[in-house]
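Reviewer 2 asked us to include a model.

Predict the structure of this chain.
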Amino acid sequence: MKKYLIAFSVIALTSTAVTSCGEDFVDTEFFQSKPQEDIKTIEELQSFVFGAYGTMRGASYYGCDFVTIPELRSDAMYSNNRSGYYSTVSNYTMLSGDAYASGPYTAMYTTIAKANIILGTSNNLTWGETVDPAQIALKIKQLKGQAYAVRAQALFDALRLFGQQYSGGTTGVVVPLQYNPSANMARSSVQQTQAQIEADFNSALANLTGNANQVYSDKTVLNEFSVKALMSRYYLYKGDYAKVRSLVNDVVASGKYSVIPRDSYLTSWTLNNAASNSVFELAVGPIAALGSTSIHYKIAPANSYVNMPVKSAVVSSISAQDIRRSIFSASQNAAGTYIAAKYPNDNGEDNIRVSRYEEIILNGIEAELNGGSAAKAQTYWEMILKNRLTDILDANGNVVTSVAAQIAALGPIDMTKLKSERRKELVGEGFRMWDLLRWGGPIPKNATNGNVTANIAIGDNKLAFPIPLAETNVAGTLVKSNPGYDN
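Predicted model (structure tokens):
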């Protein structure tokens, strides 16, 4: 990885948009000199942490494309290519100059660059709140703990999108651990990339666990439990079920989160930094609103591009008594069924839900079904169902079939039901293609009407996105392209 890649980070860091956390992301006065000067204060270090979160919430990353792409390449949703969006992704005709590759790549490595600046900063900092060395050291640990977690997550995301673990190879991604604009690095192997991801997550926990500076009520800032939640996702994808069981146990035992109740399910998506099931979210709000580049504009039935319908099989799999059936709506502008309740704000002001408690519970179910306790898996499943179903009533309002009876009729949870449950609960949130891949595939190739025209098997080189041409085209670069593309 040479100068081209790091240049993205320089551009991002030298603009005045290194942002402060909070719903509105108030801009700070943090100018061009920062990349050339050492960070000297905790306030400056804090700004870089918020800046990393700000990059993650961009439209090419968690703000839209990294979330929508895994859904349209799945059995849950598809792209109708309305307004020209996602045609190359849907058709598996991406080239090395494709914006759907270069956008996420740039955002992920900009995030990593910001994390590296934070982690490379001296611990000899001042803080306007205190001169106590112990308090200063503890605050620095909290900030660097977040940076380790951010770097781990960005590397994991890059590995999934650009690594070859599903496309028949062993090559991972570039793993820069220092901010060095003149670096020229080759891609690591999948195993080496995974080892660094795990080391970073563990370093995050070492810095955050028990740290008194954590504020658990602020869901826009990573803490020890939200890091464990992200780790449970990573280890689930790796197939380390014992590790997932332990991490999920810790998150559940913390008592800091809960499955959103049925009556609050639809409105929970409008609660920025306030929903009981939000484990980690990226702050957006009015000032940083993503507008027409937001997730809303791709998945919603109205006031949007109406680009990504939900497959009819998903809708029909959800019973009328299940509140999740109510998230869907037809559109007056295009055929199909769309997601109306998730990310409903027309201006793209909804915070980005990176981790919800329900996902953690689903991770726990799968891990318990693979070497753990079937009873615990059932308990986890019922935690969700009890907050999604309602009693079936007759015309007089009398209970015909209670929620408990409906759950009993479903029988015990197993992997088939778990796979269906993940699709119901997480549809539109950026999980489905990755789930299908880690379960062994195949990945459907969807036509613009949702029909499957082919099945892409594990090992097909198109399951790894192209490394951007602007990266592989740098003179002397050590970065090799993925096979099957034009670079």
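Residues 260 and 277 are 5 Å apart (CA to CA). The longest strand covers residues 278-282. We have added this to the supplementary material.
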